[in-house]
């Protein structure tokens, strides 16, 4: 559209003036905000931009692979990738408290990101996909990329002393999507549901272990497959599985089972500040439930979360 076209022109110009010959780094998550941020900055300054993708081991099934394949095959971005799975799972061992999990993941991310920035050397700018809702709700909004979460703390890590470039600061998510399409990003990148920085780490209630990650991944991939198949993936803001920290009794054949519970969460929203649970068709809920119970070993019960935000949040932690 004309508006997006002139938005791009103005921003490209402003980024060029600000950056000059400097170097910019950007943390890519695979999500629409950081992808669009990288795309517009790349349009302005090309290879003065280096993107860093950190796999924290908390991604959905095959997601890191597919994100990296996408950037390498479909964009001209210069992307460094770091597999920090071992490090993050180590940081999370024995941690039950949701806020401690978030802190460890956030700090871990900064540490890894900073190491990579040092290897690049002489970086002056940090690009972030901050949106308008993040700006106005910056105190209470939990949905921040981890890198932003310590801005007010003394003794800042080096990457946070960098000058910020935030080209999306005035936009809502639907406008970011429009911008991304205008910049030539394919629909698969644009219509990806939001995914939190701490990933599956905050969708596993209680301790994050490899075994529990595996259960959640298997359930989650079924949710996404069935949502897509039924044409509901794009109709909702987010849809995902959560692994609960309890076991419940069930029956199989003539034996008693005592296994895990998966909660399904699907919400409608414009900007994540408020949300309502999605009125998914019963048949779709039924299909998802029976597939999870039949196909995911160790799960014998599925529940649907019918809470709105507020007073609940979208994520469970
Ligand atoms: P809540 O759970 O606060 O989530 O209703 C609002 C939106 O933000 C996402 N979210 C995050 N995104 N880092 C992120 O990048 C985070 O730490 C984080 N926590 C929540 C959540 O998925 C929802 O879209």
UniProtKB/TrEMBL annotation:
Domain GMPS ATP-PPase: 2-192
Tree of life domain: Bacteria
GO CC, any one term: cytosol
EC number: 6.3.5.2
One function term, GO molecular function aspect: ATP binding
UniProt keyword annotation of Ribosomal protein present: no
Protein name in UniProt: GMP synthase [glutamine-hydrolyzing]
Species: Desulfopila aestuarii DSM 18488
Span within the parent record: 200 to 516 of 516
């Amino acid at each position: 559209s004309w508006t997006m076209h002139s938005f791009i022109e103005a921003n490209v110009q402003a980024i060029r003036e600000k950056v000059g010959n400097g170097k910019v780094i950007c943390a890519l998550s695979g999500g629409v905000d950081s992808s669009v941020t990288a795309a517009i900055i790349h349009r302005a300054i090309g290879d003065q931009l280096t993107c860093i993708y950190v796999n924290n081991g908390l991604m959905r099934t095959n997601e890191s692979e597919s994100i990296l394949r996408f950037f390498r095959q479909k964009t001209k971005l210069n992307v460094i990738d770091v597999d920090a799975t071992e490090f993050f799972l180590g940081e999370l061992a024995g941690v039950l408290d949701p806020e401690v999990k978030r802190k460890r993941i956030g700090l871990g991310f900064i540490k890894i990101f900073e190491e990579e920035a040092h290897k690049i050397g002489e970086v002056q700018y940090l690009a972030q996909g901050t949106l308008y809702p993040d700006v106005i709700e910056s105190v209470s909004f939990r949905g921040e990329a981890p890198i932003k979460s310590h801005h007010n703390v003394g003794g800042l890590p080096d990457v946070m002393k960098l000058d910020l470039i935030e080209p999306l600061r005035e936009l809502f998510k639907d406008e970011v999507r429009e911008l991304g399409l205008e910049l030539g990003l394919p629909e698969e990148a644009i219509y990806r549901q939001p995914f939190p920085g701490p990933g599956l780490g905050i969708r596993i209630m209680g301790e994050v272990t490899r075994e529990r990650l595996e259960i959640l991944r298997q359930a989650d991939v079924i949710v996404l497959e069935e949502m897509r198949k039924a044409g509901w993936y794009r109709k909702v803001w987010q849809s995902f599985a959560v692994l609960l920290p309890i076991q419940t009794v069930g029956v199989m054949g003539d034996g008693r089972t005592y296994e895990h519970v998966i909660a399904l969460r699907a919400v409608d929203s414009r900007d994540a500040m408020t949300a309502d649970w999605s009125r998914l068709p019963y048949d779709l809920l039924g299909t998802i439930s029976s597939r999870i119970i039949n196909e995911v070993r160790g799960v014998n019960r599925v529940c649907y979360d019918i809470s709105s935000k507020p007073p609940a949040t979208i994520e469970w932690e």
